[in-house]
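TEACHING EXERCISE
Course module: macromolecular assemblies
Task: Read the component lines below, then compare them to the predicted structure of the full complex.
Student: A.B.
Group: 4
Components provided:
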Amino acid sequence: GDSVTQMEGPVTLSEEAFLTINCTYTATGYPSLFWYVQYPGEGLQLLLKATKADDKGSNKGFEATYRKETTSFHLEKGSVQVSDSAVYFCALIGGSQGNLIFGKGTKLSVKP
Amino acid sequence: DTGVSQNPRHKITKRGQNVTFRCDPISEHNRLYWYRQTLGQGPEFLTYFQNEAQLEKSRLLSDRFSAERPKGSFSTLEIQRTEQGDSAMYLCASSKRGGRNTGELFFGEGSRLTVL
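Instructor-supplied answer key:
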């Protein structure tokens, strides 16, 4: 079945460092891809999405490009801030069910 | 615009007891979802409503679980005869009208269940 694999955390960075969180997927057809973020004490919220190959989703300085050839959707940010500390989830919608399928999440801690 | 509200936020119960969680979605969102999240895992889909109709259930939703959305507004998730394996965070989400699922869900903060 459809699935998402993302790099295990936790990831600890210093402020202003470059961030990459890897995400790869397995799906039949052409899924839509998402990054959700969960800040401490808050519910998950959509960070960005891409619906077709080569699309780039972006929001709050984060970017991810839908790479069909490598079945990947890696999350990047050029300069992280302490306020970016959160758990990041890669997800997809694909197949016949049309429900979000999430990865296990990657915890990011940014130190000042 | 208020967000998705879930109650209670934390429930501690003894094995064998019944528990019920409530979710109030964003008003005018006609779709409502329940997910379960265990420690170190991502959310897993349980069930989905469009208005008052329960359109889909995951195989994770055993016979001890029942979800309702009687008037197409709030929803309840009841777990009967709880087991320790039911300990998890139960997440509710809602989404706007639309034929195709866009994946843009609005999540509540979750209800954490601890079964002793």
